[in-house]
Amino acid sequence: MATDEFLAIKDVSTAFKIHGSYYKAVSDVSLDIHNDEILAIVGESGCGKSTLATTIMGLHDPAETKIDGEIDFEGQNLLSLTEDQLNDVRGAKIGMIFQDPLSALNPLKRIGEQIQESLDYHTKMTEAEKKARVLELVNQVGIPNPERVIRQFPHELSGGMRQRVVIAIAIACKPDLMIADEPTTALDVTIQAQILDLLKDIQRENHAGIILITHDLGVVAETADQVAVMYAGQVVEQGSAQQIFDNPKHPYTRSLLRSMPQRDKENDDLYVIQGSVPSLQKMPVDGCKFAPRVPWIPEAAHEEHPSMHEVEPGHQVRCTCYQSFEFQDAKVGEVEA
Amino acid sequence: MWKTILRRVLIIIPEVFVLSILVFLLAKAMPGDPFTGSINPHTSLAHIHHLMKINGLYDPWYQQYWNWLVHLFHGDLGMSYEYQEPVTRIVGERAINTLWLAVFATVLTYAIGLPVGLYAGRHQNSRGDHAIRMYTYVTYAIPFFVILVMGLWIFGYLLGWFPTTGSIGTNVGSGFPAVISRLQHIILPGILQALFGLVGIVQYLRSEVIDATHSDYVRTARSKGVPVKDVFKHHVFRNSLLPITATAGYSITGLLGGSIYTETVFSYPGMGLLFVSAINYRDYTVITALVLMYGVLSMLGTLLSDIIMAAVDPRIRIE
Predict the structure, then answer these.
(1) Which residue of A121, A250, A316, B140 is surrounded by the most CB atoms within 10 Å?
(2) ipTM computed for the complex
């Protein structure tokens, strides 16, 4: 596995303007992505995963957002690029796959046109070459009968087929990095597996890096090399997939893993994390942001300004609270285990 | 698709039949009779009864309706009680006047409304957008006839730029001078009607553009690296114009039906004014003819809108 780090996110914060003040949806996130690698960003709704993705893509309205930090990508800082320079990166070097294939495609344009649009802006191909490339792409993402499909409109295709079209758009110019924002959430389970396999195949062919954003730990276990767990706009734990799944440290990661439904357990009750992610305006500014959801841990166990601690090479955890964390029903848990 | 259109046209026939019965009965149900308006102290009651009788107004309603229907199929809509002229001739003259005014006003409405609506949506919350929004709210809040009367007073009476009544000057003859005179008569009412009519289009289009701007497919286009300018051109504008195109079909009702407000305030002898005076004088033959025509026009307008919609939106196919 090559380990050239080609996307380095350094202390990136994204704040939205709400009634005149800025609130951070992503705060001081630092992550590295290497090519030939899938980095999964995991977390529940509202934790800032998608905001981070759209920040990398530069899709936020500068009038409504404040973005700090640095995103180094192939030798340039994406955050300092002009709109025109960004347009040369978007679609060409970074491709994005969206969550809902139903709404991600323009209902009034033919599939072929929508895939070709990327090529129109980033290549100097002739019309005939573009047509050929579109057919090749449609074929590559496993859509049967490409000749017919390129003349169809989105509503004529099934959800799975539409997601394949969205993927074809993202990979049209063979980007070095693909950002997949919950690519399988809107699809049913059998299609999910196919789409994930497709993403892995494409990655292998193009030697691309993938940021896979998801709340589905099953998807992470199947596909990811590296995992970053996000909570309330921060990365709370990161490491290799194996480290995260075999040796989770942060209370949030452990709670997430525990709340996964498992077949082999007798007890059908799902573990539920108390409370919910606070809204942007109610987010605690300082201290461990997960503290309110594990109130049984003594306050002293948390750091005042939680920082990342290395627990083993390549495996980092935020805050010291992991050291004294135990589930409330720890004894019951042990008996089950 | 042609089959469906043919079927839709055929369905209109029974619809018109039901409509004609309703229209006929409603006109009959109005209080008063066609002759109350023309009585004078010397008119004897017997004379009125006589008039009612020879005009068949004492016959049972189905018989009156049947007579009317038979004549209708011969292209005869009866005589106007008020004007003592065939209804077809009166309607014909008025329809031409209305067409002049309505075509001018409609073209102007869309010619101004579409670009202004697109601009307001594209530059949401800009100064221009605020000004446009202020204009639409104020205009919408003022009753239309007040706008008309103010316009008439300022530009017709005080400034004297435009004629204040009629559809064509007297003694202008025919040919080019007649066209000029007609244009002079439609400019002011046409502009006022457009300035009011475009409000709906602007507000609707503005919100359509804003919705489309925040849609997922626009985000997809931007993540392809399409510059914002082109995103608007290729994705936002086209998709936002769609619902407006569809409603354009309905405007044919107005093209021949005329505007009651505009024509009344400007004493413009078109269909709208004819309709109002026909109701005032209980001119049954004219009322039934006009309402029937409005009904047929709305049905055709709906059909036209459906066809336009199917032509421009691939999601809608008439099977």
Answers:
(1) A250
(2) 0.84
